[in-house]
Amino acid sequence: MTREDGRPELRRDPLIGGWTIVAPGRSRRPGGGTGARTVKGPCPFCPGNERLTPPEVWAEGEKGRRRDGPGWEIRVFPNLYPALAEAPSAVGKVGRRTLPANGYHEVIVHSPHHDLALARMDPEPAFRLMRAYRLRYRELCRRPGVRQVLIILNHGREAGASLEHPHTQVFALPLVPGAVREELRRLRRAGSRGCPLCAAVEEARREGRTVLENGSFAALAPFSARQPYETWFVPLRHREDFSRAGEKELRGLADILRRTLRGLNELLDDPPYNLWLHSAPCGEEHPYYHWHLELIPRLAVTAGFEMASGMFINPVPPEEAARRLAEAVG
Amino acid sequence: MTREDGRPELRRDPLIGGWTIVAPGRSRRPGGGTGARTVKGPCPFCPGNERLTPPEVWAEGEKGRRRDGPGWEIRVFPNLYPALAEAPSAVGKVGRRTLPANGYHEVIVHSPHHDLALARMDPEPAFRLMRAYRLRYRELCRRPGVRQVLIILNHGREAGASLEHPHTQVFALPLVPGAVREELRRLRRAGSRGCPLCAAVEEARREGRTVLENGSFAALAPFSARQPYETWFVPLRHREDFSRAGEKELRGLADILRRTLRGLNELLDDPPYNLWLHSAPCGEEHPYYHWHLELIPRLAVTAGFEMASGMFINPVPPEEAARRLAEAVG
User: CA angle B255-B261-B262, nearest 5°?
Assistant: First the structure.
C-alpha cells in the first residue's frame, strides 16, 4: 500500500524482479503520466523566473549575484515534482517488497538561454556544464544512504522532456538500479579476460563502428545497438568512477558530446534523444567497472515486442549508422 | 558484422547482456525506425486487399472461399517486414556474440472490420480470435528450433502500431528472451514457497488491486505496476503453458480482455496500449511457471530514467488505478 503521507515508495516485483518508484506527486507535473503534456505560462528555467522553481542548491554566475535571482550561467535546484523524497538519511526501513524512495532528484539548467541545445554550446560553457555534472555527482554520492547517482539528459518531447529549456536531471537513489547491477555483474565476470568496454573500443576501431575519437574519449556504435544511431561515449582511460574525472577528461567529454550531437542534427534534423551517465555505485570498490555515457535517439516508438521480450529490434546495422554519423560529424 | 545477404541477425551485448535483432529489412516498413510513420493507400488488412500481404498461412471464414480472397473472419500471414527470417530450421550456428535471427513473424488480422477494436468485439468472434492465438502458438512452437513464441497486440500509433486495422503479431524466436528468462528464474526460485503469480491473485484480492474476475481469470493491477493502469490477466488455474488452455479458459480470456479494455476506454478515452502473452518456452518442462498476459497503456513517454536504470516511475498508485478501473468496468 502506498504510504499515507503520499511520499514516493520503491516497490519490488515478485515476478519481474525490477523496482518501480510509485510517486503520486509526479502526477501533478505537466503531462504527468495520464494526460497530454501541456506547459503553459512563462518558462520556469529562464532567468527572471527563478521564483517558479524550488530554491537553488548551487549556481555558477556573476560575482555578487543574489541567490535565486538572475545573473547565473548554470543553475541547480530540486525537481519541483520529485521522484524521490529528501530525508535526513536516504536509508529507510526495507520491507519484503518495499523501500522508502528516499534520495534526491535535482535539475541542472544548462544555461540562461532558452533555445541553446548542448549541441550548439561553445566549448567553454559546455566544459563548465560537465564540471557541474561532476560537482553534483560528487556531492550527492557523499550523502548518507545514496548508493547510485544517475545523470540524465532528455532532449525533445518524444524523449520525455516536459520542458524545452535545455536541462539535465540528477537522480540520487537508495539502491543500485537493475541496469547498472547487470553491467557490474558482466564486467566483474569478464574479470581477467579484460574489460568488455575497453575491448568494445578496440572492436569498434577494427569493425568500423567508431564515430569519433579525441584524446580522451571514443564515440562508438555498440555491436548490438538497441536502436538506430545508439552511441556510447567511452573514456579511453579505464576508470570506474566519474567523480575522479579530471579537467582534461571533462573537456574531452564536452567536445565529443558536442561534435557527435551536431552530427546527429546534421543527419537527422535535431532528433529527440536520451543521454545518460553510468558510473560505479557510490563509495564502493569496483575496479573492473568502466564509467561511460549512452545515447539513444528516439526515432522509433518502442512497442510491445520490447516490453514482452526485453529485447530490441534495430533496423539500421550499427556499422552503417556509425559510418553515416562519422561522415556527418565530418 | 551484418550478414551479407541482409538477413536479420541476433547480437548479444557484452556489457548489457541483452540481445538485439539487427533487421535491415525492417527499415523499409512504414515509419521503419528512422522517419515519420506514414501509411498511404488502401489498408492491406481489409478484405479485397489480400494481394497486398504475403500469402496467408491460415484463415477462418466462409466455406469454399478462395485462399487469399475475401470471405474470411480471421486471417494469418507472414509479416511483410519480418524481424525474423524463415529457414528450414530455426537453429543456426551460434557465434560468440551472434545467432542467426531465424524464426517466424506472423500477423493475425482480428476481423474484416477496419475499425473494430478488440474492446468492442462480440463474445463469439473474440473467443475465436483467442482460439486463433492458441492455434498459431501451438503450430509455431512445434517447428524445429523455435524456443519461444510471443503473442503481442499493439493498439494505437503511440503504442507502435504502424497499421490501424486491429491485428496481433506473433514472434517465434530461436532463444528464450530476457524478460521470460527472468520470470522463469524467479518462479523457479520461489519453488516451494508457492507460485508468486498465484500469490499475486490472492494479494490483489486482499489489497484492493483486483480489477475484475470471472470463472477462469483475474485481471489485477500488480503491486509494483510499472505504468499507470498496468494490468495483468492471470489464469486462476496454475498452468505453465498457453497451448494447453481449454475452450472454457479461452472464452474466459476473451471475456476479461473485452471487459477490461472497455473499462480502459471508458476511463481514458481509447488509450494506446501494448498487450502480450507470456508462456513457458516451447516443449520444455517448467511446472513452476504460470502463463499470463500483461497490458500496459501508453500514457506517458518513457524517458532516459527508464533506459538508464531499468526501473520505472509510476505516478498512479496501483491500488488507486485498480479502484478506478474496476468502477469503469462496472
Answer: 90
